[in-house]
Design a protein that fits this description.
about 325 residues; alpha/beta; N-(1-d-carboxylethyl)-l-norvaline Dehydrogenase, domain 2; ten-stranded mixed sheet; 12 helices; globular; 2-dehydropantoate 2-reductase activity; ApbA; pantothenate biosynthesis; EC 1.1.1.169
């Protein structure tokens, strides 16, 4: 693969899109960034990644666009926009080539299933699960605290054989490797999305309700207990759906989080800046699938009720 001939689009240049897009651009790739509110700031000052584990990365000038129709037709599209974004299918269709590879970098369940009907049949849809600690410090400014690995799993599209799907995933892994982004290739995306939700469901919501980062939440016995109970609800539901879950997963995730720098998840920053939170993709879909499987998730349901109340109050005042 000649990466220099590929055109790469970043749809949603916030923390995730800014970080991975800048890393790919630093690796010599032709990267094009779609922005909305931060367009002027990024055109003027570029994108800066302040990392605790890598050297500072400053990308300037940036190939930035306000409208997907102005972008060159891209071979690969990395979707950093959150699940709350509207018209995503239309934006992707305008920004990508007819056979584009679309990597969905979102949290939650069933994201690919919900996006697929809005994409042309000729486009490849790939699930991308990011294991990274970062947040947006300001327009074009991203603070990277730890990690960065991306899991890739083929979801749907014209690659109908396992061999063709793995070949595309390997192409994606090579592309990410050019930006020094480690990857793992998966046989699918559903199991990985469930496993990631075991961490995301408790930590995202509790960080908002208790206004705390990961270290404080782990240190206090009450919040630590609640986190583990919510993790076990997700694990039990996944197993009821026939999804394989490793033994001891909750304890492993808690131990790994304790070794990370203190971190406020993405939902915390959405709440802090009074943006819509990803309530449906992290909680609503989980509860729907739990009901279908005959599972009770009282802690998850209570968390969604609290977050909905909080979000309704601040959105109603805007």
């Amino acid at each position: 693969m000649d990466q220099n001939k590929l055109q790469i689009g970043i749809i949603g240049t916030g923390a995730i899109g800014g970080f991975y897009g800048a890393m790919l651009a630093q690796g010599g790739n032709d990267v094009h960034f779609l922005l909305r509110s931060e367009y002027d700031a990024v055109v003027e000052k570029g994108i800066t990644i302040n990392s605790l584990v890598n050297e500072q990365l400053h990308l300037h000038p940036v190939q930035a666009y306000k409208d997907a129709a102005d972008m060159p037709p891209c071979d690969w599209l990395f979707i950093g926009a959150k699940s709350t974004a509207g018209n995503l299918g239309d934006i992707i269709t305008r920004a990508g080539k007819p056979d584009a590879k679309v990597v969905l970098l979102q949290n939650g369940l069933s994201n690919e299933d919900q996006l697929r009907p809005f994409l042309p049949d000729t486009m490849h849809l790939i699930g991308g699960l990011c294991y990274v600690c970062l947040f947006r410090e300001g327009p074009g400014l991203v603070k990277h605290q730890a990690n960065g690995m991306v899991d890739l799993g083929y979801h749907s599209g014209p690659a109908t054989t396992a061999e063709a799907q793995q070949a595309l995933l390997k192409e994606g892994a090579e592309l990410l490797a050019s930006g020094k982004i480690p990857t793992r290739l998966l046989p699918g995306v559903d199991e990985a999305r469930w496993q990631k939700l075991v961490w995301n469901a408790p930590f995202n919501g509790i960080s908002v309700v208790l206004n705390s980062g990961t270290q404080a939440l782990l240190k206090d016995p009450a919040s630590n207990k609640l986190i583990k109970e919510m993790m076990e609800e997700v694990i039990s539901t996944a197993r009821a759906k026939g999804v394989s879950m490793p033994d001891g997963l909750a304890d492993k995730l808690l131990m790994g989080t304790g070794a990370m720098p203190d971190y406020q998840p993405s939902m915390y920053h959405d709440w802090l800046h009074k943006r819509p939170m990803e309530l449906d993709s992290l909680y609503g879909e989980l509860l729907r699938q739990g009901r279908e499987a005959g599972c009770s998730l009282p802690k998850i349901e209570a968390m969604l009720d609290q977050l909905t109340f909080i979000q309704n109050r601040y959105l109603s005042n805007q």
